[in-house]
Amino acid sequence: IPASSDDNIVLYYFFWEPPAPLVTASWHRRSPIMNSRAFSIVLLLATALHVQHAFVTPQGNGRMPTTTRVSVAQQNPVMDFFSSLQKSPPQKDAVEQRRSLGSQENLMLPRQYGPNPDVTFPQMNHVSCAVLSSTPSIQTLQKAIDQVMKAHPLLTCTVEGDGEPTERIDLFQMVRKGEPNPCTFVSRPDTFNSKDVLSVVDVDGSTREDLDASWQANFKVDLDDGSWCNVESQPLWKVEFHRLRGNSGPCALLFSFNHAISDQSAASKLTDQIVALMAEIDQKGSVRNPPTPQEIPLSLEESVLGRERTFQDVQVEDFSPSTIQYVAGKALEETKGPVILPDGFKQGGGVVGAVSTIMGKAAGGDDEESLSRRSAVEFRSLSKEASAALLEKCRQNGVSVTNALSAALTLTSTDFVDNGNNAKKERNYKVLQSLDMRRFGKALDQGKSVGCHAGSMDLMHGPLEDRAGEKLRSNPSLKRLEEFWSLAKEGKKQTDDFIAAGGPENAVRVFDFAMTISDMNNLVHLTAQSKDSQGRAYSAGFTNAGVYERYLAFERDADKQPETVKVEHGKYKVEDIFYAASNARTGTLYRFSCMTINGEIKFTFHPAYPIVDDETNAKFADALIELLEIIAGTKDVPTTDNVFDLIPKGSLTKAVAALGSLSLLSHASGYISFFQSVLEMKANAAPEEFWPALNFWIFFAVGHPILQPILWISDVLHGSPGPSVGGLVPITFILGNVVAIAAATFSKEIRNAVNVAALFAFLSYVGAGIDGTAGLGDFNLQLDDKYKGQVVKGCPAYDEVRQPSMDNFDINKYQGLWYEQKFHDWTQFKEVYDTTLDIKLTPDGKGWIDDFAVKGPAPDAAPLSWDKSPVANGAHYFLFGRVDPKDPPGILRESGFGVEFPNYIVDVQKDPATGEYKEAIQFQCLERGGVRVFEGINFMSRNPEMTPAEMEAMHARAEKAGMFPYGASPEQMHSVARKTPGSPDIDNNWQAMWRALGVDKLLELLTESIEDGGR
């Protein structure tokens, strides 16, 4: 398993679906990825963070079978006699064979960890069951097994060597140097025979249901319990012969392997060879065409990388830029935050968890229940009709069955990951998909003997909304079916890209490196113990072992050319094959293994319990099968094509984005100037001055565009025709909202388009303020903006704008009520009207309070709804400042939002009769780092209204003061609308509602509290 940079072992099986693409499959247990001694810690960290998931299983963790398991040797003395007759002398060329285990095999064996002798890593189990139509005699089965054991060395091997390094050279005892006594396969002729691996289970029953109950019970036990295997003294496999009462009818051969010596292609070919030999023995009385003796197959690493090209042989010589790119790509996968546990489980880990792991500690602490995890197992079949239809649909869509299975698994995972909480989230999914490693690199292994050559890769899908599979199953509309095939095509693309980029070779090379220099098995063990990950590294995973009948059979001596595996030999027909590798301690969240035989796809669903309980696993299995039937078109479900589904995926959003981009580009020059000014300000101002000033600008820049849709919706509301509910809201407005909300709720396309439109509208509105096209009076946002084509930098000094009318200025006379006539000020809103300022000094004369009263919105701004507003009769806001004795008379210091700036009183006009101030011009200016952030200009009068001549004269005085470049010219100022003096308060149904809700009291209370706080 090396195969991908993720630590998962995978058995590969492949078949051809003419003319569909190659379909592959694999057992999963992936290898970790790492980076070299200089890289060792980095690699260990990458491994702990991205891979570390093997099919490790606890010892003694299975439930005992309900039927009796009887060793052949224990049945009776006669059997011992027959067994002795079957022992053939070794062939002349039979010799002892030895080979050191490869990295993948060391992971699955697994190689133990010397520094922690109290912990024994359990073996990784691979279980495969073949149900036959007829029951052979025990003698026939024994003879057939004896023959295959002579031919395939790994069926008679044991393991010598402890695999301990010469030394561990890092602080955490994880980095290895040297290996003087490697774990080694040793196969000696005539050491073991059938009686060492075969046991008989006599089923107490006579029906197929009884048979299935028997083998399925033991399948579940052997999947998680490898305690039957002592790799130093016993064969690394066994087979149970389940037979019904009377020894007639169907039977089952239940194979259990140490995963280091088998994958499902090997198990299927072994099944075929045993059945073929039984048929020959039945027909001819003996074996005339024995299996061709084989050598111990090459390791996965040698097959893919070449003989003597493993890391131990060449170190990093074969590492290339593509290898580094592969490792970086694996690391980047985690940035997408794929889900690995269902809701309700703590999902942690990350960098902190990886560091804990390489320090020899389980991330999040040890999970005391990790050793009690077991496989939740369910068996299902996709009918012959549905399997054939699914294959045809795959061909029509240009994908393989494997691609369709990956899409179905991912979508079904979305139905269960919320753990029944209806979380309505969108999540990313990381799916472990098998590959046939025999096809890649040097491709030296030809699959002629029993061995394990498995690899895999990762698919990244998402974000996908929760319950996406359920929505497809309940209403397989054209759009949802299209989304399914898009997901399958994306899986195909990722697979093709992975292969084209040399992913399989790099995955093997990196894993081999990691396994050679580090104790990967201990990292896997720590991950299995982790409370944070519960041993999970993937959202889901699957193995598709392909089509049984399309494998090339193991060779036999008399074969003139390779033959394919057959489902029928003599009276024996292979009716079913189900298989799995344990996913209990480490692996994926959701999991299945499948293969096609007799035209039906056979599924074993085997996630880890209690992360996925038995009931949930059964529902998951049913849901996935139903989804495949719907996709294949063999299950009819009422379909309603939502009108929103007619919108091509992404089209509306792309169109809105295109229009929004054009709008935004029209303000590009303004944005460029703005950001240049911000950078200048940041370079020249201290941080404690820069950030408050920028935040001040942002607050009001955001406030204006937010107000616009509120006013628009309000006018739509009150302009809607038809009768009103309670005299307040027209019923057509309510119905329109229901339609709009439904569109956004049920159409992701519309929802996304609305969000994109809102974003571009916001940015374009702010851009219009920055480049001065949104109204110079109330929304001129540019920093150091232009006047008559010239940039005006910074703020003027008071003496530069102060007029002679300010001689002998008396601040006490300045107190009282002022009516604002015009303003140039982006902290105000043009949508309000009847604005007044009531200025008061504090009793000590050192501070001042400005009671800023407004009504809104103005009739011109919202002609249909202005009188329905909660502030139609006014609201008060308070500004505060101080009088600095160091300032000349006429300067008030104004503060708010973390900034303080001067408020210049530039000009006052006196009443000739009383000497009281009757008109005033104010000018506020905020400068930071030589950049003008804000300017505010107010034309004020003691009278509610001014004549055109009076207003013209005020502009003339402002021009004389040099204030036109800062916004005091007529075109740069906004005129404040005024309510007719003496007009009564507005009273209607809406105002009655606001009073009933206490809004008027709340505003009064707010006004009093703010005013008191200012004092």
SSE map:
Blueprint: E1 8-9, E2 13-17, E3 20-25, H1 40-50, E4 69-71, H2 77-86, E5 97-100, H3 103-108, E6 125-132, H4 138-151, E7 157-160, E8 167-168, E9 176-177, E10 184-187, E11 198-202, H5 208-224, E12 237-243, E13 251-258, H6 264-284, H7 300-305, H8 311-314, H9 321-333, H10 350-358, E14 374-375, E15 378-382, H11 384-396, H12 401-416, E16 426-435, E17 455-465, H13 468-474, H14 478-500, H15 503-517, H16 520-529, E18 536-547, E19 568-569, E20 572-581, E21 587-597, E22 600-605, E23 608-609, H17 614-632, H18 651-665, H19 668-684, H20 687-719, E24 724-725, E25 729-730, H21 731-746, H22 748-770, E26 786-787, E27 790-791, H23 798-801, E28 816-824, E29 833-841, E30 847-855, E31 875-882, E32 891-896, E33 899-910, E34 917-928, E35 931-941, H24 948-960, E36 974-975, H25 989-996, H26 999-1014
Parallel strand pairs: 11-12, 16-18, 18-21
Antiparallel strand pairs: 2-3, 4-11, 5-10, 6-13, 6-20, 7-10, 8-9, 12-13, 14-23, 15-22, 16-17, 19-20, 21-22, 24-25, 26-27, 28-29, 28-35, 28-36, 29-30, 30-31, 31-32, 32-33, 33-34, 34-35
Helix pairs in contact: 1-10, 2-4, 4-6, 9-15, 11-17, 12-14, 12-17, 13-17, 18-22, 20-22, 21-22
